[in-house]
Amino acid sequence: MRQQIAAANWKMNLTLDQATHLLDEILKAPHDLQAHQKVVFAVPFPYLLLAQDKISGKLNFFTAAQNCYTKSSGAYTGETSAEMLQSIGVEYVVLGHSERREYFGESNAMLEEKAGMALTYGLTPIFCCGEALQVRESGAQNDYVEKQLKESLFNLSEEQIQKMVIAYEPIWAIGTGKTATAAQAQEMHAHLRNVLARQYGDTVAGEVPILYGGSVKGSNAKELFAQPDVDGGLVGGASLIAADFGQIIDALK
Ligand code: 13P
User: Fold this and answer.
1) Which domains does the chain have, with CATH numbers?
2) 218 vs 9: CA distance, rounded Å
3) What is the full DSSP assignment across 57-124?
């Protein structure tokens, strides 16, 4: 059964005290999760070990880094390798978030290297794609997002692509309060699954979770996650509010 994931992307938010409190609040609430349903906390690097500690013993809960570098070690001041993340027990890594593409110049080619590195060290990449508003307004969103996938992922083997999670995050919906409609999300997710199917076949494409991100909240998660090709969400702002993120976890089908 395809996995369903509620992933919190805290971005560059919270102090240690606030992070501790938020994790405690979210984790104290009971969530009736099935084996294929997962909750992932993509926290800032300084809080990864804390989050690892807080979720220990909780079967459906995992941590993610928000980035990793293209190299496994060396003189790259300020960077963090996939191997380091593996060594502390992190399981997921968010790659190619639009904020990294825009502010840190991450290209599809660089993300291909990062995805390869993450997979080499046993991390599951949550690979982000998504178009800007002007691309959507010109009607070119399907081709745009297809190109992101092709240029970064299509040299992966069938076995490797099955280990990926894709997150569709239209840039115009990120942090704007303007969510894609459930129909818009479903249409794009079906397109992405088709793109995967053309390259890797239906069975493989049917196993890759595709998350939606962009102003997901407790109030709209259920409708979005009810779409057949929407396998959960990658959540920014609402993941910083325990009650809201709790509702999002409970919205997993
Ligand atoms: P918001 O949920 O704040 O719109 O952010 C989405 C996002 O970028 C998650 O990675």
Assistant:
1) 4-250 (3.20.20.70)
2) 15
3) T-TTEEEEES---SSSSSS-TT---HHHHHHTT--EEEE--HHHHHHS---HHHHHHHHHHHHHTT-E
**Is 169 annotated as catalytic?**
yes
Give, using CA atoms, the residue closest to atom 7 of ligand 1. 236
Ligand 1 atom nearest to 237, measured from its CA: 3
**Model confidence pLDDT, tens digit, residues 155-206:** 999 999 999 999 999 999 999 988 999 999 999 999 999 999 999 999 999 9
213 lines ligand 1 (CB under 6 A): yes
Which ligand 1 atom is nearest residue 177's CA?
4
Would you say the CB of residue 184 lies under 6 angstroms from ligand 1?
no
Q: Is 117 exposed, middle or buried (0-12, 13-18, 19+ CB in 10 A)?
A: buried
To 10 degrees, what angle do helices 16-28 and 242-250 make? 40
The pTM for the full model equals 0.98
